[in-house]
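User: Can you recover a sequence for this backbone? Please restate the input before giving your answer.

Assistant: Of course. Working from this structure:
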């Protein structure tokens, strides 16, 4: 690769040649801000020329060039890897100068054309010295061929050309053309560039990434587009014209980036962040052999889904009336957070998996989920995670709409039921919830529910939310409320409690006229309203506590009818949870033992209620009846499934060797905790505690002295002794909450594609989180290790010395970023100090959910850096 300082004239003058902006480059995007700065620099250099000063030239920046695949010996062609904005801008400035002097100096105008803008003896695209990317090509070519009329289409190219035409008029004396020629000379001979020229064998993709992958210059969508078209050397032109240009024309750059992110989410990546879009999609492509056909298929699918995505942005483009109405309401709600779910529904409908009626029903669940949560003041801080998880969590064994209803109804989704909604409508200060447009939409939907024969045009009406009983009540209002007080509550307290509730709110276009007037005055104004809800208020004799509560109940009934309720008894939403491990460990319960819902939940990383719901609705689970409450009692909600009808539960437990205390509870000494359950899928006979030895001794016994050694149980007992030892030691040194947190961390790490290695050593009890490349021994890396023992509590540590010799973490900046991310955990402060011990922190900090989530995010970042490293 060669680099040299040059002038614009030296770069583009001489024999016929062409600078091609490749398809992977973004379109011309300089705004007036950049143009103004450049013009200021040009004028400064022109003034120096006029004064005769021999000042230094002005450095404009770099241009990176590489030989084009279309290069010819007699007609050199160069790919503009970087610098197209500068070259395009300077070319447009010279075209503006040419057109500015064309009438007065046609020969000079022709000279500028032939020296800088065109290849005179070439035709077609070869006629132009600079050939922009296809989206800009037609307009740029038109300006190079000659000035366009004022009615020409807009765009960045047109704006830049117009900018220079205006500035030339402002800066030059019509009678003194030397002013213009000094400006030309300043552009061509006073602005310097560093031209970096790659050789034919150089990796242009890597060069481009090294210049732009910081994200400071290009958006995530820009970077991904560049990557895609760099991978399409043969099919690029066809794919660009057929799919990309229409796609780029229908969506803004930000919308395109959002669609690219949604495509990743729909394809199963439910944790990727928009700011990591480029890296995530790049890694997907580079995990295997990806052909041009694969890249083309991805862009074609992006193009197909762009039509669906536009319906979220522009609901009026949706052909079905019922679906269109729901999309309009969600758009009014500004519910961009629901896009993963909405895109999934439109996508499944297009694939024929559900019809428009089912799509509308499913969207009504999404709307209800949002509205009911707002009305009941459920925090919105986890909505992104909830809806991003929908494609990955949607049940596969039920219809789509039904599955979405079931998923959103999960207990950890907090979708308020009818009882909670009714109570909140009566008592909660609705006016203080959500955003103004959301409150207005709720009232609008309630008004529409009356089905008035002449409904109000809400789009045209200038309606606002009105308090019937005013926020600042006068004496008449206080006197009226005094008649409603009970239990020592004052009229002022009663007003404060009811003023912002839904029952006291309505919509009106005459808010200022209603003001704080007494109810009798408001009645007349409300009576003439076109809104049915206002006429009903006006028909009331007075407006006190009883009337407000009565209207709250009426509106609650309508809200319940409008917005569907969640399903009951769904339990927790689990991310593609495989309950097989729970089934296995229950099947392995030794004779004379029992466990609790909480123990089993902690063992698999779920919740007690989810476990109970699963066992109650899943036939054929061995020993399900041996899961009891934490007090050792049979749950009041326990029922045998039809296939498992098995008589009295206590009799069955007694037959299985479970003893009962005087108060009827199962013997607590026979209870297996989460760690006890883990030991059933742990190691062999060595290293057992006394209690484990006792459990093992009674495991093969049964009534009548027959052996009950289950083959599956014996297989489980033969595996993973170090892992069992690790958790047993951790349980001795730390709290049960820490044990559960570490189990959850290991589960999340394995979901990310990592492994957990327990060294088989009597001298060391620990674990290492590992990543490997197809099992190649010298391509294994560990972001973190864990140690337990010595009664000091579990510790997590980072072996920086090991990381420092493994790519890509030989880069000290990456290691520092890894520590910085870890230090975001509360209670963690790691520093890189050599020589010295590995930086560490106690495992107890993982008991906090937020710390655990931050650690998983950091480990995801680590995995992404590892998988994206250069392995050449």
């Amino acid at each position: 690769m060669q680099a040299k300082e040059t002038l614009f004239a030296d770069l583009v003058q001489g024999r016929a040649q062409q600078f091609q902006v490749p398809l992977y480059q973004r379109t011309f995007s300089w705004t007036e801000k950049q143009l103004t700065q450049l013009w200021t620099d040009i004028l400064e250099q022109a003034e120096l020329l006029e004064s005769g000063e021999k000042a230094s030239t002005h450095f404009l920046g770099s241009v990176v060039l590489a030989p084009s695949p279309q290069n010819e010996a007699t007609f050199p062609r160069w790919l503009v890897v970087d610098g197209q904005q500068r070259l395009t801008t300077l070319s447009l400035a010279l075209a503006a100068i040419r057109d500015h002097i064309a009438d007065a100096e046609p020969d000079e105008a022709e000279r500028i054309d032939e020296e800088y803008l065109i290849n005179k003896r070439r035709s077609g695209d070869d006629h132009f010295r600079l050939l922009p990317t296809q989206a800009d090509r037609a307009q740029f070519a038109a300006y190079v061929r000659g000035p366009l009329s004022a009615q020409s289409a807009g765009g960045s190219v047109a704006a830049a050309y117009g900018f220079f035409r205006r500035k030339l008029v402002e800066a030059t004396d019509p009678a003194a053309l030397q002013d213009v020629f000094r400006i030309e000379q300043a552009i061509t001979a006073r602005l310097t560039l560093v031209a970096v020229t790659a050789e034919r064998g150089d990796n242009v993709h890597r060069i481009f990434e090294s210049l732009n992958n910081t994200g400071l210059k290009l958006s995530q969508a820009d970077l991904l587009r560049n990557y895609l078209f760099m991978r399409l050397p043969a099919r690029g032109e066809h794919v660009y014209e057929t799919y990309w240009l229409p796609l780029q024309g229908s969506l803004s750059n930000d919308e395109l980036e959002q669609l690219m992110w949604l495509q990743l989410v729909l394809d199963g990546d439910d944790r990727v962040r928009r700011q990591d879009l480029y890296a995530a999609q790049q890694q997907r492509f580079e995990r295997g052999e990806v052909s041009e056909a694969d890249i083309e298929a991805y862009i074609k699918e992006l193009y197909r889904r762009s039509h669906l995505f536009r319906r979220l942005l522009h609901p009026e483009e949706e052909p079905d009336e019922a679906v269109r109405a729901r999309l309009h309401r969600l758009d009014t709600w500004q519910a961009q957070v629901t896009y993963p779910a909405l895109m999934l529904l439109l996508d499944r409908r297009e694939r024929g998996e559900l019809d428009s009626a089912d799509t509308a029903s499913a969207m009504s669940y999404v709307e209800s989920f949002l509205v009911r949560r707002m009305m009941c003041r459920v925090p919105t801080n986890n909505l992104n995670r909830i809806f991003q998880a929908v494609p990955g969590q949607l049940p596969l064994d039920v219809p789509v709409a039904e599955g979405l209803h079931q998923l959103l109804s999960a207990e950890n989704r907090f979708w308020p039921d009818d009882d909670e909604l009714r109570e909140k409508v009566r008592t909660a200060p609705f006016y203080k919830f959500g955003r103004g447009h959301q409150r207005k939409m709720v009232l609008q939907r309630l008004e529409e529910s009356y089905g008035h024969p002449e409904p109000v045009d809400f789009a045209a009406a200038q309606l606002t939310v009105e308090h019937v009983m005013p926020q600042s009540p006068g004496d008449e209002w206080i006197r009226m409320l005094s008649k409603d007080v009970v239990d020592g509550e004052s009229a002022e307290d009663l007003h404060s409690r009811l003023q912002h509730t839904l029952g006291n709110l309505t919509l009106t276009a005459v808010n200022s006229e209603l003001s704080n007037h007494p109810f009798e005055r408001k009645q007349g104004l409300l009576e003439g309203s076109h809104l049915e809800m206002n006429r009903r208020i006006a028909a009331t004799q007075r407006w006190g506590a009883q009337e407000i509560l009565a209207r709250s109940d009426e509106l609650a009934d309508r809200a319940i009818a409008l917005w569907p309720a969640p399903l009951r008894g769904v339990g927790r939403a689990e991310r593609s949870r495989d309950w097989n491990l729970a089934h296995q460990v229950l099947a392995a319960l030794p004779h004379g033992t029992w466990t609790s819902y909480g123990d089993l939940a902690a063992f698999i990383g779920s919740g007690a209620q989810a476990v109970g719901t699963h066992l109650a609705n899943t036939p054929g689970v061995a020993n399900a009846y041996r899961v009891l409450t934490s007090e050792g009692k049979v749950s009041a909600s326990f029922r045998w499934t039809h296939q498992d009808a098995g008589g009295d539960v206590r009799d069955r437990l007694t037959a299985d060797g479970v003893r009962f205390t005087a108060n009827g509870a199962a013997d607590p000494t026979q209870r297996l905790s989460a760690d006890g359950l883990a030991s059933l899928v742990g190691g062999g006979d060595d290293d057992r505690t006394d209690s484990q030895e006792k459990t093992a001794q009674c495991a093969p016994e049964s009534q009548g002295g027959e052996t009950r050694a289950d083959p599956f149980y014996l297989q489980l007992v033969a595996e993973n002794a170090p892992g069992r030892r690790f958790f047993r030691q951790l349980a001795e040194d730390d709290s049960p909450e820490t044990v559960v947190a570490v189990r959850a961390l290991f589960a999340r790490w394995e979901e990310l594609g990592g492994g957990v290695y327990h060294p088989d050593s009597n001298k060391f009890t620990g674990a290492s989180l590992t990543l490997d490349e197809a099992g190649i021994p010298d391509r294994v890396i560990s972001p973190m290790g864990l140690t337990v023992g010595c009664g000091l509590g579990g510790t997590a540590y980072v072996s920086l010395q090991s990381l420092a010799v493994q790519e890509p973490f030989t880069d000290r900046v990456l290691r520092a970023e890894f520590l910085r991310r870890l230090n975001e955990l509360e209670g963690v402060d790691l520093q890189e100090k050599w020589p010295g011990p590995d930086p560490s922190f106690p495992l107890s900090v993982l008991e906090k959910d937020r710390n655990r989530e931050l650690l998983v995010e950091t480990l995801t970042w680590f995995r992404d850096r590892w998988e994206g490293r250069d392995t050449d």
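That completes the design. The chain has a mean pLDDT of 82.
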